[in-house]
């Protein structure tokens, strides 16, 4: 099968899953505000979590383009499901694959790719959001162990995660250059997780704080060489950003598809509202911005698949497509009028879920600044 055919098949498979199995329950999942474990396990069986890993660890030997196609199709219907899937495929497992010991790979990575264990990835702290150089969680080497103390915030999947990849300081004097990632199994003494956050959107992906109090882990649970934490994060940063662009593209398409149909169905003044130029202009703009978003997103995934450096382009794509998703969701609520205000319509959910896309993978303001820097402005 050619790469092109493989991509088409993958898109069809996840689009079918999203339309037939997720769509009918997507709103209910948000209302229940629980982790849908059976869907997670089903995605594991479908090979979703191993999509970007080689077969030797149970992966599907796919690439970043395939990963993003899957994210896009899931996000078109449910951002909650897309978000926990993306997290499990990339941030929660990548450091285990690239820097984990054989024991970590065997006992944690492989089961995670099969959907038997849930991972989480933790950078953010109460006083360190964009400013990761300010993290305070400290990992001190004591004999043949690390002892970790600190508080992490906004940890996606924390309430039910079996393991955490956690960014810690090992040398405060070096700021962002003195950070490292550590692997912490959930059942390690000293690990505790707060109540789930009560939040605006993606309510079926639960988030909580992670407290680490005198957590002892073996030296080999540091993921990567000492002082290489930032470098290792940079290695996957383009992929994190383009993944967020793909999630945004999916949501924009979902908002567009719902709006398109509603505009044809809703009759006012004896005509479907699609006959009014005001509505046509919205649909025309949404379709154009989605087309541009598609080109940007998959241009960058192709660069990643060719092994090219593309952090600037990935940042541009994430900035552009997440803002497109916000505009598409906004226009969708206008097309739906009062009905967008009712929770039963998905456009209401899309509107709330777009906010997450503005922060994850770098806020728009930070990305704008970084792009200016990549351009050589300062
Ligand atoms: C749904 C959700 C899930 C998340 N999941 C995770 C997770 O699993 N793991 C994790 O580690 N984190 C997670 N986060 C946290 C996310 O990564 C942070 O929200 C993000 O890093 C931004 O940090 P902040 O929200 O504290 O904003 P801040 O950094 O406090 O920024 C606030 C505002 O100031 C602006 N700003 C800050 N610094 C600058 C500057 N230098 N120049 C210009 N403007 C600036 C920002 O753009 C923003 O508008 C999640 C967040 C959400 C909402």
Give a verbal description of the structure.
With about 375 residues, the chain is α+β, with helices and mostly antiparallel strands. The chain has three domains: about 5-115, Butyryl-Coa Dehydrogenase, subunit A, domain 1 (Orthogonal Bundle); about 120-225, Beta Barrel (Butyryl-CoA Dehydrogenase, subunit A, domain 2), CATH 2.40.110; about 230-375, Butyryl-CoA Dehydrogenase, subunit A, domain 3. The chain contains twelve helices and ten strands. A four-stranded mixed sheet has the order 1-4-5-8, with helices on one face. Helix 4 (about 65-75) runs antiparallel to helix 5 and helix 8 runs parallel beside helix 10 (about 310-335). It is globular and about 80 Å long. The chain starts with a helix and ends with a helix. The structure holds flavin-adenine dinucleotide. Flavin-adenine dinucleotide binds near residues 359, 366 and 369. Flavin-adenine dinucleotide binds near residues 123 and 359.
The CATH topology label of the largest domain is: Butyryl-CoA Dehydrogenase, subunit A, domain 3
Mean pLDDT across all residues, rounded? 97
Task: Specify the CATH class of the largest domain.
Answer: Mainly Alpha
The CATH homologous superfamily of the largest domain = Butyryl-CoA Dehydrogenase, subunit A, domain 3
The number of distinct structural domains comes to: 3
- Largest sheet, if any? 4 strands, mixed
- Molecules bound to protein: flavin-adenine dinucleotide
- In percent, how helical is the residue content? 40-55%
Main-sheet strand order equals 1-4-5-8
Globally, the shape reads globular
The rounded Rg comes to 21 Å
Please identify, by name, the CATH architecture of the largest domain: Up-down Bundle
How far apart, in Å, are the first and last alpha carbons? 47 Å
Number of separate helices: 12
Give me the secondary-structure category: alpha+beta
Low-confidence stretches: none
């Amino acid at each position: 099968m050619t790469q092109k055919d493989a991509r088409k098949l993958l898109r069809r498979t996840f689009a079918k899953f999203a339309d037939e199995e997720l769509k009918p329950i997507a709103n209910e999942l948000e209302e229940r505000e629980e982790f849908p474990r059976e869907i997670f396990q089903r995605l594991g069986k479908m090979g979703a979590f191993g999509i970007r890993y080689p077969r030797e660890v149970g992966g599907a030997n796919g690439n970043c383009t395939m990963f993003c196609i899957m994210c896009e199709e899931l996000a078109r219907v449910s951002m909650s499901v897309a978000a926990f899937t993306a997290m499990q495929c990339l941030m929660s497992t990548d450091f285990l694959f690239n820097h984990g010991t054989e024991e970590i790979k065997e006992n944690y990575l492989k089961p995670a790719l099969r959907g038997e264990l849930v991972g989480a990835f933790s950078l953010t702290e109460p006083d360190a959001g964009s400013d990761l150089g300010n993290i305070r969680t400290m990992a001190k080497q004591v004999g043949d162990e690390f002892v970790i103390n600190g508080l992490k915030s906004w940890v996606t999947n924390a309430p039910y995660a079996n393991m955490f990849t956690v960014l810690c300081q090992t040398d405060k004097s070096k700021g962002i250059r003195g950070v490292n990632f550590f692997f912490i199994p959930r059942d390690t003494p000293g690990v505790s997780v707060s109540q789930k956050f009560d939040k605006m959107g993606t309510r079926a992906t639960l988030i909580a704080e992670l407290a680490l109090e005198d957590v002892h882990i073996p030296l080999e649970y540091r993921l990567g060489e000492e002082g290489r934490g930032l470098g290792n994060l940079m290695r996957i940063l383009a992929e994190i950003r383009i993944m967020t662009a793909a999630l945004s593209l999916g949501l924009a398409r979902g908002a567009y598809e719902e709006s398109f149909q509603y505009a044809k169905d809703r009759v006012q003044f004896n005509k479907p509202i699609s006959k009014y130029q005001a509505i046509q202009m919205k649909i025309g703009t949404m379709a154009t911005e989605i087309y541009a978003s598609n080109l940007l997103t998959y241009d960058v995934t192709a660069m990643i698949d060719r092994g090219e450096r593309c952090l600037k382009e990935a940042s541009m794509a994430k900035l552009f497509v997440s803002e497109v998703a916000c505009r598409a969701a906004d226009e969708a609520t206008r097309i739906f009028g009062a009905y967008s205000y009712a929770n039963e319509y998905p456009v209401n959910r899309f509107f709330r879920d777009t906010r997450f896309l503005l922060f994850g993978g770098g806020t728009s303001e930070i990305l704008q600044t970084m792009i200016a820097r990549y351009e050589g402005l300062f």
